[in-house]
């Protein structure tokens, strides 16, 4: 069984039943942020440019190597992924587009080890290590982060405590000393500010009563606080108004380094205008059928998926 801290870290990036509210609740004691810590935000940290230049193709080392991946729904045996090939190198931003039901979300869920799916063939290497046999919490601690289309609530656990536990789980894995609440507050506060979130969200229970847009911002807060070598962002643009989308894009762009990468799923060009992908992939019937640059997305927007499938 995973140690509690590791499970807490994994819970940040997983909505699997393994990390349901009931399983997370005993792991984390609720602390209000110390009363002597002002909840007023301090000076803003420097925001990244809203619209960066197009991401260059990197010559970085492979971070994720997926070969011939097939996967099925565990309960029914229904095959969803039908032979996915995908390589993501350090420093690259990849976007996956495709019509509803083509398998985009399933791919990301399989990558994080969602228990509803079974890998039936192929390989997944993450930083050269076989991911398939790793537990979801091990994948999280190895540097995978996933923001879900519908982020879960965790009643009884404040955002602040949740983030602190997750950060300390990562630090423990790296042999770093745990942060105390006061120290952590100075880390998290500017990030809350950058995302234009009310600091009160830190003291609210994770996603409880949050609007759809607030949940999405909160997911990106988790990503920016915890960090990731590879962030899987499933439709972070859905339900966000124009301003919120820009705030989220600034936060994501601000996290990018030559070492880490993003795989984002979207239906909309507007996200690709704000977070410039190195590659855009089109998924159909559980496979990536085409890969190119952002112009593919434009073709999709103009011609629809049917014409792309016929190319
Ligand atoms: N646990 C499950 N049980 C049954 N069917 C499933 C399950 N998970 C995925 N599917 C089916 O697999 C197909 C792919 O689903 P998936 O969510 O990956 O699509 P998607 O490309 O992300 O779609 P969208 O753009 O609508 O979000 C769909 O037909 C879906 O109904």
From TrEMBL:
Keyword Electron transport carried by entry: no
Domain ABC transporter: 64-310
Keywords recorded for this protein, A-Z: ATP-binding, Nucleotide-binding
Database matches in InterPro entries: AAA+_ATPase, ABC_transporter-like_ATP-bd, ABC_transporter-like_CS, FeS-cluster_ATPase_SufC, P-loop_NTPase
SUPFAM superfamilies to which the protein is assigned, alphabetical: P-loop containing nucleoside triphosphate hydrolases (SSF52540)
Classification via PROSITE patterns: ABC_TRANSPORTER_1, ABC_TRANSPORTER_2
Name the record gives this protein: ABC transporter domain-containing protein
Organism: Panicum hallii var. hallii
């Amino acid at each position: 069984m995973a140690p509690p801290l590791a499970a807490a870290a994994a819970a940040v990036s997983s909505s699997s039943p393994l990390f349901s509210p009931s399983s997370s609740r005993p792991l984390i004691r609720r602390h209000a942020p110390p009363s002597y810590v002002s909840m007023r935000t301090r000076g803003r940290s420097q925001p990244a440019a809203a619209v960066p230049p197009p991401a260059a193709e990197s010559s970085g080392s492979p971070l994720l190597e997926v070969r011939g991946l097939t996967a099925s729904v565990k309960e029914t045996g229904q095959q969803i992924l039908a032979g996915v090939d995908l390589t993501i190198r350090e420093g690259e931003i990849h976007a996956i587009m495709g019509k509803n039901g083509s398998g985009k979300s399933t791919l990301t869920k399989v990558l994080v080890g969602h228990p509803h799916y079974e890998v039936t063939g192929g390989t997944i290497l993450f930083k050269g290590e076989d991911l398939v046999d790793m537990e979801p919490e091990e994948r999280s601690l190895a540097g995978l982060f996933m923001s879900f289309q519908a982020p879960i609530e965790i009643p009884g656990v404040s955002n602040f405590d949740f983030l602190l536990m997750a950060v300390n789980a990562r630090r423990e894995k790296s042999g770093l000393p745990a942060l105390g609440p006061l120290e952590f507050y100075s880390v998290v506060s500017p990030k809350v500010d950058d995302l234009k979130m009310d600091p009160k969200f830190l003291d609210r229970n994770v996603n409880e009563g949050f609007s759809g847009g607030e949940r999405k911002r909160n997911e990106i807060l988790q990503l920016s606080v915890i960090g990731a070598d590879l962030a899987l962002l499933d439709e972070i643009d859905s339900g966000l108004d124009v301003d919120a989308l820009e705030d989220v894009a600034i936060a994501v762009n601000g996290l990018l380094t030559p070492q880490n990468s993003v795989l984002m799923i979207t239906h909309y060009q507007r996200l690709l205008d704000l977070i410039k992908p190195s590659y855009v992939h089109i998924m159909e019937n559980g496979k990536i059928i085409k890969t190119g640059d952002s112009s593919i997305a434009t073709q999709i927007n103009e011609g629809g998926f049917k014409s792309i499938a016929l190319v």
